Amino acid sequence: MTAPHPQPTTATAATTVLTVQDVHAGYPVRGRRPGPDVLRSIDLTIPSGQALALVGTNGCGKSTLLQVLGGGLAPRAGRVYLADPDRGGELVDRTRWSARAAARQVALMHQTLPPMPGVTVRRLVEQGRYPHRGPLGMLAGVTGTEVDDALAAVDLVAFADRPVDRLSGGERQRARLALALAQQPRVLLLDEPTAHLDLAHQLRMLHLIDRVRRERGLTAVVVLHDLDHAARFTDRIVAVRDGRVVMDGPPAEVVTAELLADVFGVRGRVVRDDRGSSASRIRCLVDDPTD
Ligand SMILES: Nc1ncnc2c1ncn2[C@@H]1O[C@H](COP(=O)(O)OP(=O)(O)OP(=O)(O)O)[C@@H](O)[C@H]1O
């Protein structure tokens, strides 16, 4: 973080928290050989405080884009810049960030947790504190109130001593969110936070994310499959098809019959209630593709 760094040519440092420019990314096949590009020439600039939904069909590259935004996958080409609050919000090339410094800015809530027999909710959430602990701090216990605050934010205080593998699916999602919150990031990356939840729990989870995001002044990028939810809970929808951004804008402009046809390959109608363009009232009525 002390080395000189180039300034990006397009992003505005004052408001942008994260930006990717002409990013190509993919995975190796059989160990070493690079496989095909999964992301192809992605440009995305994310302003501070925005709630952004990534939508698209299975396998189009949404999780891969989250990995790139979170620094878990380095792009093959293009640049990722992250705003540094210690430099007045200056955009600093992601390659110049240490893993711990970047983790104080960006937290990724993965789709699933690896099996962790016997690990309690509190121990799990304490792992979120690692970017804030010095090398010696790794040997010491976790201090401060951030773990308790994160548990309280997701209403899991009463479950703190329960093993994670004895939680319900909804409680486990909240534990994963608490883990990300304990990191005290400025940007939350959420990969399908409503996966495996019933309808009521999906809505509870999205309201919870919305509340903590607003209370903590966070920016959020969230992968969602439900377009009604994306329209209701986010400010901006970015649609990805075959590794490219094909639509990007406010929900009322993006969630259209064209989105259903061009991105999801289904016919359908988008209904808005009589409150006009209110994004919270968008509903997609999709025809059964097998009819
Ligand atoms: N670790 C990996 N190694 C190799 N290929 C991968 C890896 N992860 C994902 N892929 C491939 O990259 C492509 C995009 O996957 P990705 O998980 O980003 O899609 P997605 O849009 O998040 O899909 P879904 O909605 O099903 O979660 C897919 O073809 C997938 O098989």
Structure summary:
The chain is 26% helix and 28% strand.
Describe the protein.
The chain is globular. 26% of the residues lie in helices and 28% in strands. It is of the alpha/beta class and 291 residues long. It starts with 15 loop residues before the first strand and ends in a 5-residue tail after the last strand. The strands form 3 sheets. The chain has a 6-stranded mixed β-sheet, with helices on both faces. Strands 2-1-4-5 form a 4-stranded antiparallel β-sheet, covered by helices on one side. Strands 11-12 form a two-stranded antiparallel sheet. Residues 1-14 have low confidence and may be disordered. The site of adenosine-5'-triphosphate has 10 residues, from helix 1.
Q: What are the segments in which pLDDT stays under 50 over at least 5 consecutive residues?
A: 1-14
**Per the principal axes of the C-alpha atoms, what is the gross shape?**
globular
CATH superfamily: P-loop containing nucleotide triphosphate hydrolases
Average pLDDT, rounded to a whole number, is 89
Q: What is the count of β-strands?
A: 12
CATH architecture: 3-Layer(aba) Sandwich
Tell me the strand percentage band.
25-35%
Q: Strand order of the main beta sheet, please? A: 6-7-8-3-9-10
Q: N-to-C terminal Cα separation, in Å?
A: 57 Å
Bound molecules: adenosine-5'-triphosphate
